[in-house]
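Hi again,

Forgot to attach this to my earlier email, sorry! This is the prediction with GLP bound. I've pasted everything inline since the attachment limit keeps bouncing my files.
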Amino acid sequence: MRILVTPEYQTLSQTAADLVINAIRNKPDLCLALPTGSTPIGMYEEIVRQYREQHLDFSGVRTFNLDEYLDLAPDHPQSFHTYMRRQFFDHVNILPANIDIPNGTRGIDAEAESERYERNITRVGGIDLLIVGIAANAHIAFNEPGSAVESRTRAVDLAPETIANAQLHFGNEPAPTRAITMGIGTMLEARRVLLLASGAGKADAVKRALRGPITPAVPASALQLHSSVIAILDEAAAPGEST
Ligand code: GLP
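Structure tokens for the complex follow:
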């Protein structure tokens, strides 16, 4: 694993965006796996800025989102579908047909939806570059503590701390308690992985993920099994790591 420690969130976002844009330049039909959350917002903004300034073409790019809440309509303001449109898809020329986000609509057959999503990843030849954040409980996508290293895309129950975090965005409406997530085994099949973490609230999870034993109790520790991971961290998230 390569660890890049950048001074602050802004430089982290810039470094991640540069890496993604270079990957698209080198392979215009790049297949990306994309995260949500607060951490990647700066990266998306910087990618969109460079896309506009440099008149880039993303029409060959394919994307798979890592996860989506279950029992939530795709057009709900807090869905990851909506997040992705707002932060990224509405601002670049990625074709709607090249976008895949698990469908968490209430009543959906989550098992069939998970199988459809996995088949689609296989059909396009796999993921070239997977970008992922980490939660304070060290979950990646929605693979909560206890998730097996070989897990595949599936419906999961969210951890209490994850539901509590989500609730901050859902106001008076109860936050979802379940999600569909790409599995850790599926994630480890991506050709390259980019892990992003920012802020002191992530420092403990980052340390356990990068330096601790590989264990389902720390889902992000599974990334140590992958041969091509770059972790881009800001200093607050990486005390003790050298820059
Ligand atoms: C959610 C997402 C994760 C993300 C995590 C951390 O749980 N499913 O993919 O890594 O939030 O989010 P943030 O970047 O807001 O700390």
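The beta strands are 2-6, 31-34, 62-65, 67-69, 99-100, 129-132, 154-157, 178-181, 192-197, 229-234. The chain has a mean pLDDT of 97.

That should be everything now.

G.
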